[in-house]
Amino acid sequence: MLIDSHCHLDRIDLEPFGGSMDNVLATARDNGIGGFLCVCIDTEHFADVRDIADGREDVWCSVGVHPDSQDVHDPDVDELCLLAADPNVIAIGETGLDYFRLKGDLEWQRERFRTHIRAAKKTGKPLIIHTRAAREDTIRLLREEGAETVGGVMHCFSEDWETARQAMDLDFYISFSGIVTFKNAEELREVVRQVPLDRLLVETDSPYLAPVPHRGKGNHPAWVRHVAERVAEVKGVPVEEIEQATTQNFRTLFRAG
Known about the structure:
single chain; 257 residues; alpha/beta; eight-stranded parallel beta sheet; 9 helices
């Protein structure tokens, strides 16, 4: 069994699945996917994310505001903690820094990140971190705010080994997405080779970043198996070993099920 440790179920195109979220999940379960973490990117849509998890024992959710989300409500620590009290919420995020898509004075982004780290520490729930073209500041803020007391995951990891090493030193896991299957991702596959099995997660980040052989299509959780198979190939181990390790890692990190 695999767990899709990061997906945006509320954003998946349901038309190919007969307009049914149940069909999305059934397709994944038929492919051996036994758990789904539906990740929130703004509080305006938190209710949608929560409702997908509600009543489904193998679906969990998070609460947070993505670093790229502009012109949205910015919750303070207390509001994030209040939303995180929902029993379906097992993590704070998606949060972090992104200097690739946004330019100029990004101090607001760093303050938003600090707020999420403080909420994670207050709730005791792990962080889901997005970082792109901001590796130094991401690690610096995690250290300054004492994020190692709650840990978390560096989701959809696409940085170098040194960044992964520093994150793991702060008690973070490293999660790989469909990017690891891309032809031009050899540097990332080298990181896969070095990350220990007990620090590794897999995800789709669906509906984005569909893995080979589905690249360019709308992604969905069933395809996390392609990620796991490529990770297994790179590490030279049976895919069953990746299934066992990543499922155990997910349950350990998020204290889920």
